[in-house]
Amino acid sequence: MNSSASEVGQAKEAFETVYELSRLLNTGLDRESLGIIVSLIEKGVNPEALAAAVKEMRRTTSNKTLGGQKGQDKQFQY
């Protein structure tokens, strides 16, 4: 196996490990979402800010799904 194929294999293995940790911690993230988050972090996005954004999106989605209280989501209205 050449160096590039070896690096790809290692990257896939590392991602599977991260996904397994995510699953064990009950994050609720699927592979696609986790991949996007990992990619954003690799590009320099602050992990704590990203976690806060994911939590906020889940909260607002949950509120809308459950009927939510009006006026509670002012920060993210479009």
Automatic annotation (TrEMBL):
Localization annotation: Cytoplasm, Cytoskeleton, Microtubule organizing center
Domain of life the protein comes from: Eukaryota
Pfam families hit by this protein: MOZART1
InterPro entries to which the protein is assigned, alphabetical: MZT1 (IPR022214)
Similarity comment: family membership: Belongs to the MOZART1 family.
Protein name stated in the entry: Mitotic-spindle organizing protein 1
GO CC list: gamma-tubulin ring complex; interphase microtubule organizing center; spindle
UniProt KW keywords: Cytoplasm, Cytoskeleton
GO biological process, one term: gamma-tubulin complex localization
